[in-house]
Amino acid sequence: DGAEMKRKAHLKELSRFDEFNFYISEYFDPPAPAANVLDAVAVLMGWSGDAKQIVTKITGQRHTDDELHTGHFQRFLRDLGAKRFADLPEAEQAQLLGKLTERIAWPKFDEEQQDYTEVTPMNSYDVLKCSQACFHLFEWLASLLPEGTRPPRQIHIDIRAYHEKEAELRRKGMWPEDP
User: Fold this and answer.
1) 101: which residues sit within 8 A by CB, 6+ positions away?
2) Which of 126, 124, 121, 141 is nearest to 14 (CA)?
3) Could you give the CA distance from residue 107 to residue 117 in angstroms, rounded to a whole number?
């Protein structure tokens, strides 16, 4: 089925990233979308701790310049791939759903309203802006949720801004041709 293929593709893409530790080490406080993804992983895996501790559990590295522990990371991916939303107790299901769908402190400028929106629902686009590895993790986690509860791919402010930029660049002849 198509959903299962997408889920496996995101898990496979995750195997190509060793950036988790480097990425988190660059921040004392990771951006809200990335932090929520890491918190969601912790809920699913039955872990606790801050973002850095969660990343250490994922990678086996305590510091960015530590030797990569490929076997540790592969075991994490195997264990992650075996997890199912339905297997979690109800309280953890609610917590995981919340981390993947809640409104977070992530300001965006709304051109239509000519004002900033201070909170934004979790969505794939904002996670991708933080980290490609977190994006694949987010997409995989979201695929575990029941169909009607999954977070959006993007929000209207972002897609509208994209279409406005596309129209502007097309007028200037700078938009790439479709393949």
Assistant:
1) 121, 122, 145, 149, 150, 151
2) 141
3) 5
Tokens of 88: 């979690």
Cα distances from 37 to residues 67, 71, 111, 115, 131, in angstroms, run 24, 22, 28, 27, 10
Longest Cα–Cα distance in the chain: 55
Q: Cα separation of 95 and 12, whole Å? A: 25
Give whole-number Cα distances, 17 to 10, 12, 98, 147, 167, in Å: 11, 10, 26, 27, 34
pTM of the model: 0.85
Q: Are 124 and 138 in contact (CB under 8 A)?
A: yes
Please report, for residues 61, 109, 113, the alpha-carbon distance to residue 118 in angstroms, rounded to integers and kept in the order given: 34, 9, 13
Nearest to 102 by CA among 55, 30, 35, 52: 35
Per-residue pLDDT reduced to its tens digit, 78-132: 999 999 999 999 999 999 999 999 999 999 888 888 899 899 999 999 999 888 8
Whole-number Cα distances in Å, 41 to 160, 161, 163: 31, 31, 33
Please state, in angstroms and rounded to a whole number, the distance separating the CA atoms of residues 146 and 22.
Answer: 32
